[in-house]
Write a structure and sequence with these properties.
heterodimer; A: 352 residues; mainly alpha; Arp2/3 complex 21 kDa subunit ARPC3; 3 domains; two-stranded antiparallel sheet; 12 helices; 2 strands; B: flat
């Protein structure tokens, strides 16, 4: 996942440095007081620890080995701001001193792993361990999932950065100038290894180190961590973000055509849809009729709200989108709530 | 198998420690780049890396790569060492990534494979070659910077270019502790390996690696407290001060226009 020099265009590299800069600046500002005291050696040592832990070969089921990045445990122990600094320093030294990851791509690598990875790990750990007792097994599971999701989120960002290169940067003959694969190849190629190998290495290392610290150095984990007021403030922020995201869902209407590979069977017989498919598939014409398997399986399940347009007397497409989004979010939240209740019930029974 | 995982990790530590020693050794050598002011070298070589990233022509990238080799030879760096640690690594990794592009990128067919529907496209081949040469060039130029500049001087050069003082102090401390923690982890794995006679299954191996990581983290935190106490005893009051005593010399005044001409020519010719 350490992107070397030459894979991303200079403008992408510059954009990623610009995207990372405010996060670094805010992190430095927020940790400056700590850096005047014990925080300075602690942060440097944690950065060094992250570097060294990346060199540990972790055996995984199936006879393979993987490496962890350490973003999960760093975010849980240090918090997201100090963690993003620690991982950024480790990545900087890797790039400058060991040639692992490029100098021009350092902004992108830090954004993917240090910034997005730290915040994803911290957010998931906070969300899943909310209200759990310090000795609860749920905290270990939360740490494992935090590590797993964080490294996969970082890989997803790297895959998107790779995948947009041939779209944006190619010469007159169409030859790619930087990373050569479009999103449809870059995404599965990158995610397969991370969903199956690197993700489990990060999850195992994060959960293992969390268990070790809880047993031997519990003070480092600040259990139970955030005061109720701070947790409530964080939760309010998440709810506000969710509300804004919901309100923005009608923007999806602006995207013309269907997403690549998400065509319906009837699209193969429509002249306009066929032209769209060919345009986004390197001028390769789709088959004359819908493939037999697609035509057969397409009728297997009819969604209650096809194309995010509920079967109601709604004339506004935007309102239909909004209603679908609210319904979907409601379903997810209900599912999480039911799972949480079942988990709590099971925990109570175990205690009894 | 169980020893294999430990041996593999030990090999990585040994390799990293060796590279640290080799780069410190070569950075104190008496070659062309070693004699330059670190600020000039930092800006000049990074500008050449950016020029390589901007270049769209194989010929320009080839010239920049050749320039990198000439600079390495003039700085008395071993080409065999560079080939082993930079060129072969970059070539292998980039070929693995770029190789399939020769077949997957659509375009004018250069060669149709005898059996099957695979064909080498001109655009795919050009894109793959461009990527391989660009990565080799950028990595060679980056390696030159590290192999000819002692780490502390590199950090001072960054400070002279307005990097925040806290960042420099943290990078310096992090680098120092990386070496220390690598040595500690190395010793932990070596002692474990020397006491191991049987085979561990996958679960036991994972437990061994995670527990070693945990102990290392515990030692790290303990060391953090000791280091802070040592810093306090030496008068640390929250202010970081660095001595930047760089002075440009004759060779730097020659190198500055040299780098500027090379970068400008590469950018203009590579468009």
């Amino acid at each position: 996942m350490h992107i070397p020099d030459g894979y991303l265009s200079p403008s992408t590299c510059a954009a990623m440095y610009v995207a990372s800069a405010p996060w670094w600046w805010t992190a430095l500002r927020r940790t400056r007081r700590k850096l005047l005291g014990r925080g300075l050696p602690q942060l440097a040592l944690f950065a060094a620890f992250s570097f060294v832990i990346m060199m540990f070969n972790l055996p995984l089921p199936g006879g393979t080995t993987g490496h962890a990045v350490g973003m999960g445990i760093a975010a849980i122990v240090l918090g997201p701001w100090a963690s993003l600094l620690a991982i950024s320093f480790a990545l900087t030294i890797q790039a400058l001193f060991f040639g692992d990851g490029g100098i021009t791509t350092l902004g992108a690598n830090c954004f993917n792993m240090a910034i997005a990875g730290s915040f994803a790990a911290w957010g998931i750990y906070r969300l899943l361990s909310h209200g759990a007792a310090p000795e609860s097994r749920r905290r270990v599971v939360a740490a494992a999932l935090a590590g797993y999701c964080a490294i996969n989120f970082s890989a997803l960002l790297a895959a998107i950065e790779f995948g947009i290169q041939p779209m944006l940067f190619h010469d007159a003959s169409g030859a790619p100038l930087y990373a050569p694969y479009p999103l449809r190849i870059a995404l599965p190629a990158m995610m397969l290894g991370h969903l199956t190998i690197a993700g489990f290495a990060e999850a195992a290392m994060c959960a293992g180190l969390f268990s070790y610290l809880r047993r031997n150095e519990p003070a480092l984990l600040n259990l139970p961590s955030l005061p109720a007021a701070v947790a409530q403030r964080a939760a309010s922020g998440l709810w506000a973000t969710l509300a804004v995201a919901l309100l923005l869902t009608p923007l999806g209407i602006l995207a013309g055509g269907a997403a690549w590979g998400e065509w319906a069977a009837k699209d193969f017989s429509s002249v306009a849809a066929r032209a769209q498919i060919a345009a986004v598939s390197g001028a390769v014409q789709p088959p004359a009729a819908a493939p037999a398997g697609l035509a057969r399986l397409a009728t297997l399940w009819t969604a209650p709200m096809p194309n995010y347009a509920p079967h109601l007397a709604i004339k506004s497409a935007a309102f239909g989108y909004l209603l679908s989004a609210m319904f979907g979010v409601g379903l997810i939240l209900s599912g999480i709530w039911i799972t949480q209740r079942l988990w709590l019930l099971a925990s109570q029974r175990r205690v009894e | 198998m169980s020893k294999g995982v430990i041996a593999k990790t030990l090999h990585e530590f040994t390799d990293a420690l060796e590279r640290t020693l080799v780069s410190e050794d070569s950075a104190h050598g008496h070659g062309l780049l070693q004699s330059l002011d670190p600020r000039v070298k930092l800006v000049g070589l990074l500008a050449l890396v950016v020029a390589a990233s901007l270049s769209r022509k194989l010929s320009v990238l080839g010239v920049l790569f050749a320039l990198g080799i000439v600079l390495a030879l003039a700085s008395r760096l071993s080409p065999f060492s560079l080939a082993r640690t930079v060129w072969l690594v970059a070539f292998g990794f980039t070929c693995m990534i770029a190789g399939p592009a020769v077949f997957l990128v659509p375009g004018q067919v250069l060669y149709q494979l005898p059996q099957g529907s695979l064909a080498i496209s001109e655009q795919g081949l050009h894109g793959a070659l461009l990527l391989i040469v660009r990565v080799e060039t950028a990595m060679t130029l980056s390696a030159l910077l590290v192999l000819t500049t002692p780490w502390m001087q590199l950090l001072k050069a960054l400070r002279a270019l307005a990097a925040p003082v806290e960042v420099i102090a943290l990078l310096a401390m992090t680098h120092r502790y990386i070496v220390l923690l690598m040595e500690t982890a190395n010793a932990m794995f070596e002692s474990r390996q020397s006491r191991m006679v049987g085979r561990l299954n996958g679960r036991e191996q994972r437990r061994l690696m995670v527990n070693t990581g945990g102990v290392l983290l515990g030692k790290t935190m303990e060391m953090g407290n000791q280091v802070f106490q040592a810093m306090q005893s030496r008068g640390f009051r929250g202010e970081v001060k660095l001595l930047t005593d760089f002075r440009l010399r004759t060779q730097d005044y020659v190198a500055i226009p040299g780098f500027a001409i090379a970068v400008a020519a590469a950018i203009l010719a590579g468009r």
